Here is the input.
Amino acid sequence: MWHSPPVRQAADQPSRRAFFGATAAVAAAGLTAGCGPEIAPTTIAPVPPTGRFQAGIVAPQEAQTNVLVVVADLEDGVAIGSLLAELGKAVQALTAGTDARLLGFPSGDLTVTIGIGPRLVRMVDPALPGAVDLPEFAHEQIPPQARGGDLLMQICANDVMIPPIAAAALLDHTSNRLRERWRQSGHRGSTIPVDQGRTAPRNLFGFTDGIVGPHTTAQQQQNLWLPGPSPVADGTIAVIRRMNLDLPRFAALPIPVQEEIFGRRRETGEPLSGGTIATDPNLNAKTPDGRYRIPADAHIRRAHPTTAGVNLMLRRSYSVNDPAPGLLFISFQNDIQTFTKTLTHMTNGDALLSFTTTTATAPFLILPGFDDTRPLGSTLFHT
Ligand code: HEM
Here is the structure.
């Protein structure tokens, strides 16, 4: 069986990239010891691209600081199975450091996560998860070019230089077979400790984002990974949406009003119902005069799985500054309804939504993990 845990592979096969990573960490430590303010060196741990699940979803545990999402369409008549298998090989070469384009970059934590759009899923079987397009929602201004797409490449790395180089390499490998549709880069700043080594970044409104989600293995089994049917087992469904955020209007609000919009304290991330950042929001908690501590239109109430009637989604969003300040919302879940029902419930009364305008959107079936004996996409397409 090929179901070996990804972490083992990292330990068993030290790559050239792991060496670069270690060298960079040591170099960083040396630099900080002698001069300037003390900055903790970033440990660059390699993330194996192969295994039961694709990398870039729960591995590494703390999302890398930079993302580049590239969405492309397939040209007519392209052999999809071969294309995906070649992409998988190219991802392996990039992460192993054997692709010359990345020579010299200490980028051990590069991950590339590949998904296919509903049109391609329907070509296999319209009944499969991932076969449906997202409906239109309120607060959208999406040009046709930025709605949907056949192929997703989510490329993450702590070194800001790596994702665009990796994207160029992957597009080069697939030349004349892919037509780029839209791309978006995003970034994460410093993070806030949440629980058991987990951290979460702040978004451009200043609130900590990514606290609630399926973080234990059992929760991920139940909410994140597709249990089947076999061609999609151990894959998941991704939703990618770029939203402009109205920073000036939000920043003009007093902090307590901002906190009521989210339902959490801005500085600490704790829910307005009390406790710490890691405490589950208590949606029933009331003030002595009978008002909900987490208001009826607060984001964490409207988006809460119990009020939306859905499972948990794993959010792994990034902030964007170009073309406009905003959020590159990225969620993973094993049922598209987890997303659509949540956003529908938000649309019917979430105070946050009036500060957002969505300008790009696409759902993808994230392919099951792959390795040398099971090429990327081979459970769905013949090579
Ligand atoms: C596509 C639309 C969105 C969906 C489906 C969504 C979904 C969610 C979900 C499911 C939660 C967890 C709620 C809970 O159980 O407590 C959440 C919380 C949160 N969301 Fe959103 N959200 C969306 C848009 C946004 C936007 C535009 C922002 C910021 C600009 C944002 C920032 C946050 C923050 C700060 C929290 C609270 C902390 C946390 O649990 O991570 N969300 N969101």
